[in-house]
Amino acid sequence: MEFSHKPVLFAETVEALQIKPNGVYVDGTAGGGGHSAAIAARLSEGGRLICIDQDPDAIAVLQERIGGLPQVTIVQENFARIDSVLSSLELPGADGILIDLGVSSHQLDTPERGFSFHTDAPLDMRMSQQGPTAAELVNTLDERSLTRILSEYGEERYARSIARNIVRTREQEPMKTTLQLAELVKASMPAAARREGGHPARRTFQALRIAVNGELDMLSAGLDAMFERLNPGGRLAAITFHSLEDRMVKQRFASWCEGCICPPDFPVCVCGRTPRARLPFKVKGPSAQELEANPRSRSAKLRVVEKFGR
Fold it and tell me: What's the pTM value of the predicted model, to 2 decimals?
């Protein structure tokens, strides 16, 4: 199986993990194995790399590409369940964890997966290939629920108009395909809005994908679980692609780095809070060279947090 995926911020991410040859590392969104292969190459026989992905297509490719390496273990699961994954492997913690969020190039470029608004395909969008599809959501949710999803997860200005038209259209015929939805979204917007900011259906497709896969709930739970599983001095690296997930990562990282929260006029600290981590740097984005080679990297941001020793 071909699994085309260009890891973004590749060198920056691998460098940020500060890989120790005998350390334990987790790639929580291993995908086609780009980052994983680079991490594995830096490990000695005493090192461990746990590759996690919820997509069965990715698991098959990982097994083929790096499954034979003795230091590599491949697990089909969502990274939010890292606690149970490490416990099942009798690993108390990790020296570095990576998550590369969002949809992969393989998922976008495989029409039948239903992630892309450029080709006609079943309206699916399931990363794990299990559970309710995007078609089920648009054909069963009421107008208010659809409006909320499009507004909150897609930050779509015309969420109400799009949701209203979805409900009207499905009364005559169910929404089944990506192009059917993309054309409806375009028809729900003023002409001027259709000419702004890329494809008019981009935000709607993002919102439905997030809803189908529970991405923000998984990210919130996963960040806490991953940080708790970091060994002292370990680093958690997160690559984000849109403002909602980046905001969550930024705020969670900042909360771990925050110390005393007592009012400034208190003579002594009574809250007892001390920083649990530090930021090696604020944020990194793609270079001009990477943008030219891979336009899909344009919105990528890398954030890293390092857990203090105890």
Answer: 0.92
